[in-house]
Automatic annotation (TrEMBL):
<dbReference type="GO" id="GO:0036440">
    <property type="term" value="F:citrate synthase activity"/>
</dbReference>
<dbReference type="InterPro" id="IPR019810">
    <property type="entry name" value="Citrate_synthase_AS"/>
</dbReference>
<dbReference type="InterPro" id="IPR016142">
    <property type="entry name" value="Citrate_synth-like_lrg_a-sub"/>
</dbReference>
<dbReference type="Pfam" id="PF00285">
    <property type="entry name" value="Citrate_synt"/>
</dbReference>
<protein>
    <recommendedName>
        <fullName>Citrate synthase</fullName>
    </recommendedName>
</protein>
<keyword id="KW-0012">Acyltransferase</keyword>
<dbReference type="InterPro" id="IPR036969">
    <property type="entry name" value="Citrate_synthase_sf"/>
</dbReference>
<dbReference type="InterPro" id="IPR016143">
    <property type="entry name" value="Citrate_synth-like_sm_a-sub"/>
</dbReference>
<keyword id="KW-0816">Tricarboxylic acid cycle</keyword>
<dbReference type="GO" id="GO:0006099">
    <property type="term" value="P:tricarboxylic acid cycle"/>
</dbReference>
<keyword id="KW-0808">Transferase</keyword>
<comment type="similarity">
    <text>Belongs to the citrate synthase family.</text>
</comment>
<dbReference type="InterPro" id="IPR002020">
    <property type="entry name" value="Citrate_synthase"/>
</dbReference>
<dbReference type="InterPro" id="IPR010953">
    <property type="entry name" value="Citrate_synthase_typ-I"/>
</dbReference>
<comment type="pathway">
    <text>Carbohydrate metabolism; tricarboxylic acid cycle; isocitrate from oxaloacetate: step 1/2.</text>
</comment>
<dbReference type="GO" id="GO:0005737">
    <property type="term" value="C:cytoplasm"/>
</dbReference>
<dbReference type="InterPro" id="IPR024176">
    <property type="entry name" value="Citrate_synthase_bac-typ"/>
</dbReference>
Length: 430
């Protein structure tokens, strides 16, 4: 970071010079690290709408242009020309691998897709109707009880082993959570299948008959993984970074990220979006839901719309829509009523001044649910799939943070608006 400029802040007549760091691309940042020490004042930014919490080289988003770069490569090129495990390599190591490096990495991931056999018992402790997200939070956190040889965050080799284990085992855990929820036997990973095909096989094959993975569905699945891989300092990634700043082990940090992603304002939006489309049901009911979303007295929101950063289109939604068309055509459900409602909802919302003024566009969660449902997943599996795909982003950001020699525990302060000091009152005198 270069510091050629400074900002001057004046408080009660006293001026404070604050260094400005200039990024390779994007907004300048004003370094307030010494502000409290110099001025006795905190800054205040609930929701971190104007706060850079770290520096990073992994992902860049330009919300105005609708641009998303992973290590400089545009998401539409990666989604169109690369594949998920190559994107994992890019996020983890910072460059596109040569053929032999990629082959070695893919073999390493493939050879670590099984989980400790004893972990199967964890699933059986849950009720059958447990949401798969609950199972994933529990089982991923429990990985720290099994993989002790990759929990020492100060050992670079152990950090690498934990990274590969998490990327490799998340599909297995997600598929097992699904199988358990529908009362079917677990399906072991197969080393002869690619990452996406292996996941589909673990989810949809049954011992009673041969399951053939449809290559077009596998390609669409792989592309969905790529589109969800990383996204700068979103809420769940920030959760992973904050958890890791205390020195917590990688499995605990990723379990914290899964828990944060679960919320409907974040990764839970894909499930909430599909449930909204089903509730709308037919295009003639769309105006009713748009009116609710616009009503100041109703905190109802259109799921799959809006984004903290994208104030133009979400480039992932554009690619996801293309995938939705491809999958639905393949499955012969291009006249899928949900897709009809989704496209008409998008059209009407974008034509409405409310959404235009507030720059609310479809985000990554708007179309993903339509594809996943068409592929046969229940809505309860939508966010687990998001969590599985985002694990590589969480891990890449976790590794980057641990590599920062300036790393300190994250400890925000507050604007205190509570009671001032007062004495205790015995109960008989209250
Ligand atoms: C993800 O951060 C990331 O990068 C996340 C993510 C990733 O890859 O990690 O991209 C994944 O989480 C995508 C977002 C998925 N969530 C949803 O689709 C849920 C619906 N969207 C909203 O909850 C909302 O848009 C957020 C949470 C996504 C963004 O919220 P912000 O940035 O805090 O915006 P805001 O709540 O301040 O809204 C600004 C205005 C408000 O109106 P006013 O108070 O100014 O009058 O826009 C309105 C909001 O009421 N608004 C909406 C709306 N989203 C915002 N109104 C109706 N429908 C919506 N969806």
């Amino acid at each position: 970071m270069t510091e050629t400029k400074t900002a001057t802040l004046t408080i009660d007549g006293n001026s404070f010079e604050l260094p400005i760091h200039t990024p390779t691309v994007g907004p300048d940042v004003i370094d307030i690290g010494k502000l409290y020490g110099q001025s006795g004042a905190f800054t205040y930014d609930p929701g971190f709408t104007s706060t850079a919490a770290c520096d990073s080289t992994i992902t860049f988003i330009d919300g105005e242009k609708g641009e998303l770069l992973h290590r400089g490569y545009p998401i539409d090129q990666l989604a169109g020309q690369s594949h998920y495990l190559e994107v994992c390599f890019l996020l983890l190591y910072g460059y596109l691998p040569e053929a032999n490096e990629l082959e070695k990495f893919e073999r390493l991931v493939t050879n670590h897709t099984m989980i400790h056999e004893q972990m199967h018992n964890f699933f059986r402790g849950f009720r059958r109707d447990a949401p798969p997200m609950a199972t994933m939070v529990g089982v991923v956190g429990a990985m720290s009880a099994f993989y002790h040889d990759s929990t020492d965050i100060n050992d670079e080799h152990q950090r690498e082993v934990a990274s590969i284990r998490l990327v490799a085992k998340m599909p297995t855990i997600a598929a097992m959570a699904y199988k358990y929820s529908i009362g079917q036997p677990f399906v072991y990973p197969r080393n002869d299948l690619d990452y996406a095909s292996n996941f589909l096989n673990m989810c949809f094959s049954v011992p009673a008959e041969e399951y053939q993975v449809n290559p077009i569905l596998a390609r669409a699945m792989d592309r969905i993984f790529t589109l969800h891989a990383d996204h700068e300092q979103n809420a769940s990634t920030s959760t992973v970074r904050l958890a890791s700043s205390s020195g917590a082990n990688p499995f605990a940090c990723i379990a914290a990220g899964i828990a944060c992603l679960w919320g409907p304002a974040h990764g839970g939006a894909n499930q909430a979006c599909l449930e909204m489309l089903k509730e709308i049901g037919t295009v003639d009911r769309i105006p009713e839901f748009i009116a609710r979303a616009k009503d100041k007295n109703d905190n109802y929101r259109l799921m799959g719309f809006g984004h903290r950063v994208y104030k133009n289109f979400d480039p992932r939604a554009t690619v996801m829509k293309e995938s939705a068309d491809e999958v639905l055509e393949l499955l012969g459900v291009e006249d899928n009523p949900l897709l009809q409602v989704a496209m008409e909802l998008e059209k009407q919302a974008l034509a409405d001044p409310y959404f235009a003024e507030k720059k609310l566009f479809p985000n990554v969660d708007f179309y993903s649910g339509i594809i996943l449902e068409a592929m046969g997943f229940p809505t309860s599996m939508f966010t687990p799939i998001f969590a599985m795909a985002r694990t590589v982003g969480w891990i890449s950001q976790w590794k980057e943070q641990l590599g920062d020699p300036q790393l300190k525990i994250g400890r925000p302060r507050q604007l205190y608006t509570g009671e001032t000091k007062r004495d205790y009152v015995d109960i008989e005198n209250r």
